[in-house]
Amino acid sequence: WRYETKEENIMEIKKFGSLIIRSKPVLPGRMYYRYKDHPTITLGASTPGNEIEWLEHDGLLIATRNILKGVSWEDLDRNELILGKKVEIDGKRYWARTMKNGANHTPNDEWGHFLDSCPDESLLWNISCGYSWCMNAVDPLQPDMYDLRGGSSARGRAQYSKNSGLTSFGWRPVLEPIRPIPPDIDMLIGVDVVVKSQDSTIHGKLESVGDYDLMLRDARIKSFGCNFREFALNLPDGSVIADLSRIDFVLPLEETAKED
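The structure assignment produced for this chain is given below.
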């Protein structure tokens, strides 16, 4: 399905991928609280009858509803599904995470941004969906409260403790496609490159590539994402070491400038 959005771009609905619990595909909408042993949660290959429905817009894929209900923020965080983890679906790699939340009309208000772009809010939210956990916008007055969106209205907001797993609380995943690291990355040694991992971006000259990480010298951190500490390490000499397993892509700086 294809829709014209309010921004005059195309928003598509696709069906692929499956929710995986206990290493088995399950129907989207499963109640997690019924599992007594808190089994692992992830996403995997499409299986007939268990496909997830996604909205595609601005290079991201957003589930059209909660695919898991009765789940707590803590459950999702334990499975690395708040800030994101890498998953492979039908031969393609993605970061699977929750939607970002922030004050209205700010860059971190990802939920609001998608609603603003949506020709029909019911495509992104429906009354049976309930609340969706989000990346937390830290409130210094309530540091133990975590953010949810949706509920009784598409733009609704709520906060609950991280171990609350009410039946109306769920996970609406977001997928960020991961661009493959070039197999000939060694050819970029000595070249000014851009290294990106989710919202974290570093510019620098590629110094070396090992089995598990790469090093940039004369590094310039262009953006600190939520995952920066897991992704990169600043060294006193101005170099940066980045974890290869967490890198989305490495590209020559000149190439990214042309794309912009």
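Interim note for the steering committee: Helices lie at 73-78, 110-117, 228-231, 253-259. The chain has a mean pLDDT of 88.
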